[in-house]
Amino acid sequence: MDDLLRSPGLRLKRAKQLIGQARALIFDVDGTLAETEEVHRQAFNAAFARAGLDWCWDQSVYKELLRITGGKERIRAFEGLRGEKPLLSDNEISALHGTKTAIYAELIANGGCPLRPGIEDLLAAARRRGQILAIATTTSRGNIDALLTAELGKDWMELFAAIVAGDEVPRKKPAPDVYLEVLSRLGLPASQCVAIEDSSNGLVAASLAGIPVLISRSAYFQDDDFSDAFHVTDDLTELAVE
User: What pTM does this model have?
Assistant: First the structure.
């Protein structure tokens, strides 16, 4: 691996080979398919305002909260960061998160959140090669649908052989559950798949499932440790070229 580590050109070549030879490409959603995290942050703040809470997550606070996977889990964690006893019951947090999800869908539908550069080319190239596409994400089905309906059309689900969201498995990333469930549904070994992620939590989750990982750095996770990834890029366009 020494020559691979020394030569960026060779790393890129090997990454393209890895993608080209894979039976399946498995995509994360938030931050990977699109830079959605800022829209999520705005939706959280709007939901807090509707609920009469004096909470406001700025970008620095939200960046820290993103280390915690799951929107309801972030809300609960924020109470702890404020040094307060729990103010909200589990049912209240679920309702608050439901409001946030609805607001997120409205924001996506009204303003959109374009897919990151290279994503559509990567999906198209995979389809031409006859590869299987799948999604393994912590976000909810509703959030996936809101984004991909806006960007890929109402029939977007037909593109993906397996779609597993965070609330469909016992543990969220960095646990490997969501990836293990995708592998089970696809009936493929980890070695024949490639995961495309944007965060260290995603990298750990896919790696624990035995899947090689390509990282596309996103806005909120630029500083994460990606040393265990097969390849790291800021623009997936370079990997979409056949």
Answer: 0.92
